[in-house]
């Protein structure tokens, strides 16, 4: 087997994206099960995973729909959960901003927590990669991740009724985010933002329509930005 340093960027991306299948499969299957149990037909469940491709916001939206929350709040909550994608895009722009428009469009479509986390780490450790190398790596990461998500959603929606209740698939969602967020807490600002958002989310659990989550996200970003500002001022 060739060492990782000798692999092409695409092959390295595929190799590093494959382990996420272990998380993506139960995560996607759980959404398929919950979507069908919420009363959505199969085509709508699949549309969620193919068009949105954002597990946390999909779970949020479906749960709020089941609770009979107004559509505007459902959309606002899903968008709030996905605000991190704006930061992901800004972080990727210096690396991939010079790629052709059609490639940037596909990258934006496939930019999810897993592809971002791996790409950002690889790009930071491979300063000599060209834009085409970075695009190839991103494509390699997305190759196993996206089909695993969509396929698992379909399997969960079709076969969900046959899954025994003893199989606790809901472990996948928190496990996925712990695995992704943990290694990315590299500064005091990151840790402060994560801590405040977690504490706020737990403290505001009682706020109706999941609006406590939106407030927690805003508080976390404000605190993180302020800690970062003070660190730069002191430097």
From TrEMBL:
This is Inner membrane protein YgaZ. Belongs to the AzlC family. It is found in: Cell membrane. The chain crosses the membrane at residues 20-40, 135-160, 192-219. The gene is ygaZ. GO terms for biological process: L-valine transmembrane transport. It is a multi-pass membrane protein. Keywords: Cell membrane, Membrane, Transmembrane, Transmembrane helix, Transport.
